[in-house]
Amino acid sequence: MPKLTRYLLLAVFVLTPLALLPIQAEAQTVPAAFQTFERGYMIWLSDTDDIWVLYDNGTVNLFPFATYDPLPDNPVADDVPEGRVKPVRGFGRVWGNYTFVRNQLGWGVQDEFYYEPVRDLTDTDLFVTFPDGRTAFINGANTTWEFVSVLAPQPTVTPVAAPATVEPQHTTRGLEYITYQPFEGGFMLYREETGAIWVLTN
Q1: b/e per residue, 33-59, with b = 16+ CB within 10 A?
Q2: Would you give the DSSP letter of residue 108?
Q3: Which of 36, 70, 119, 199 could form an SS bridge with 128, CB 3.0 to 4.6 Å?
């Protein structure tokens, strides 16, 4: 086989799988709201108006704006336990009108507040930073979530936290491995389970 033909075949063999990988949209910093509950969290993202409910058992519910906006304000009239908070606005509408959400989350343990997380959203998955800098991975395909041992650039909070500096590492997620590589302008993630490569930029 001529050398040029061999090189062309090699290029096709190497580049074709890469072209099929789900390259993600650029990560963005967006205004958001966050509230911690007894057994989970609620996050509102301003660019989509979606509310994500993350339960401590690793499951998640997504409430698009159209599903909670028509609902009445939080209708729960129960006395608020000492040291707990009754959610308001969009969080209150979801928490107060969906009994299964309220039963799983419990009461709020702090008022909602606004921050600017780094988030990368695809058709099914979401990476989003928490106010404390931890990164949550939400798998929309099977409605689960978990913290990943990868530090994305810190969200903008008051005071503003500086981006964390991390060496290349592997993190175990069950039987799955994620490879993380930081760059000057962002970082890349490789999921061994799916072969997907995530590209997130600052």
Answers
A1: bbbbbeebbbbbbeeeebbbbbbeeee
A2: B
A3: 119
175 pLDDT exceeds 90? no
User: Mind listing the pLDDT tens digit for each residue in 117-167?
Assistant: 988 877 778 899 999 989 999 998 889 999 986 544 444 444 444 444 444
* Neighbour order of strands in the sheet with 51-55: 60-63, 51-55, 40-45, 32-37, 113-115
SS3 17: helix
User: Whole-angstrom Cα distance, residue 55 to residue 94?
Assistant: 14
Query: How far is Cα 34 from Cα 42, in angstroms, rounded to an integer?
Result: 6
- DSSP letter at 21? S
Task: Quote the pTM value.
Answer: 0.63
Residue 111 belongs to what H/E stretch? none
Burial of 73 (0-12, 13-18, 19+ CB in 10 A): exposed
For residues 118 and 192, which has the higher predicted lDDT (pLDDT)?
118
Non-local (6+) Cβ contacts of 170 within 8 A are 177, 178, 179, 180
CA 11 remoteness from chain centre? 35
Matching residue, tokens 């969906």: 98
